Each structure stands twice: as C-alpha cells, then as structure tokens.
Amino acid sequence: MQIVLKVPMNYNKSRSVIMEVASKITGIMSLAYDSDKSTLTVVGDVDPVAIVIRLRKMEVPSAFTCGGGD
Predict the structure, then answer these.
(1) 12 pLDDT band (50/70/90 cuts)?
(2) Which of 36, 37, 41, 57 is deepest in the core (most CB within 10 A)?
(3) Is 30 helix (H, G, I), strand (E, B) or coil?
(4) What's the Rg (C-alpha) of the chain?
(5) Running DSSP on this structure, what letter comes out for residue 23?
(6) Using CA atoms in the order 56, 47, 28, 24, what is the torsion angle rounded to 10 degrees?
(7) Coil, strand or helix: which one is 3?
(8) DSSP string of 35-64, one letter each residue
(9) pTM score, two decimals?
C-alpha cells in the first residue's frame, strides 16, 4: 500500500524528526519526502492512522491520502 502524507515543514530539522518517527513504525518498506509538495510517501504494509497518530504525538500536523499499489 502507498500512503501519501501532507506534512508541512517549518525548518530543516523537522524533516529529520519526521523521517525518524515514521521509520520506527513496523511494516514500512520505504520512505520518500518531496520538499516541493511537502509530502511524505510511505510504502509498505502499515496502518495509515498509526503513522498520523505518531506524527501528531510529535506535534506535527499531517493529513493523508491512501492509494492502491504494490
């Protein structure tokens, strides 16, 4: 499953914090951040709600869309 999270970045350190938090979730196969669109793309067998909950605990606002895929 491919999940696209809209994650606004206020400064460069927030990107590393978001990548670190998201990478600790089990089931993630790959992470990619697009700075032009402010999106984090997560691929793997993972619950999108779990990702959003973890990011919100770190006080990172996020919205997600799920797309089908490999």
Answers:
(1) low
(2) 41
(3) strand
(4) 11
(5) H
(6) 40
(7) strand
(8) TTTTEEEEEES--HHHHHHHHHHTT---EE
(9) 0.73
